[in-house]
Amino acid sequence: MTPELRAKLIAGITDGSIVPYLGPGVLADVKNAATGAPIPADSDSLIYAMNDGKPMAPKLMYEFPRAAMNIELKRGRTTVTKFLTRTYGETAWTRGAFHDWLKDIAPPYVIDINRDTQLQDSYADAPHTLIVGIARIGGTDYRYKLYRWDGQAYSKVESIDTRLPVLFKPMGTPRPEPVYIASDADYVDFITELMGGFSIPPEIKQLRQGKQYLLMGMRLNRDTERMVMADMIFSAAKPAGWVFIAEPTAKERRFCARIGLEIIEADVFEFIGAAQPA
Question: Which residues share a beta bridge with 18?
Fold first, then answer.
């Protein structure tokens, strides 16, 4: 990565023309404050954490949504919800270097597919809008909830003030209420409505026109995450943006070429000038 590209990306993130799209790798240095164990963020670590540290059957280890579906069928949907809330809402974690870096820049629009609260903590000092993805909930045609943070608490709202920063957490968060997209059934519902336009607020459909995206902490070798991402960045500029993948696979190269993402063969922690996580 050249200094010129780095400066271009940071300038675009700052002015909002480039939207940060955050995956589990941005949490690579986050540890349990009591035990020092790493936060479970990627697919494999989430499966192990959900299954008391033990692997599941090979076909379930393929992807977290598949494993979560298995747990849901055996023990109920609330079991998965309680696990994610216990993990991200009731456990103390160290602060990640990436989120400290992002807090200083304060981009006007961020998409975060993680389910932790560090992004929300980064914006705790200023009013903002939070969009949370939902699935399999009756009484509404839409697959999102909207909240406004006034500097002290979240309250539900019906529309988005795009003059304020917008945080989009499509896979959920424990705050202000625990809501998650986790199992296969959740993803099928959410992605179906995403493709139909019902998982994106109208203000965001307008806001995202012609944006470019910088994918950070993400691999693009899982179909579910690729489907969500492709629809979340619909109406992007051409080319659509960039993705940090230090050692991309042939599959990732083909996908990125097709969707218009330039691969930067570097680590996101190198980009932000932080030490590589141990």
Answer: 212
